[in-house]
Amino acid sequence: MKKEEIKNIFRVGAIDPISISKSIANHQSKTTIGAHSIFLGQVRADAIDGNEVTAIEYTAQSEMANKICHEIKEAAFAQYKLSCMHIYHSLGIVKKGELCFFVFVSGPHRKSVFKALPQIVDEIKDKLPIFGKEIFKDASHQWKINQ
User: pTM surpassing 0.85?
Assistant: First the structure.
């Protein structure tokens, strides 16, 4: 794969399931692809100290996050036989049950796609300066700890 420009992975608000289905449908014409693997992150209604999470407000150091994500993508393309990759993460408020993180990896064969996806997701979660503030039913909030 040729070097790409740094793309903005951020979307304001929840990631729309219709845009995900369109992303998948757009790959039907790419007949050298034999496998896709998808990770979808969704806001949970966790109960913490008896208080339910109703939403997460995401913020990020966007420029730095996009640069690091670009490096993760380039490394994955160098390590695995991949054809295509799409990554989106929410900014702003995302309500419980809504999607906040989307990683879509495609390649000629399933083994490379299956190996690449968890590594990519883990690196993004570990390295990108993205922060989530959990908003509770009683309107209180706290910074989220990634697990």
Answer: yes
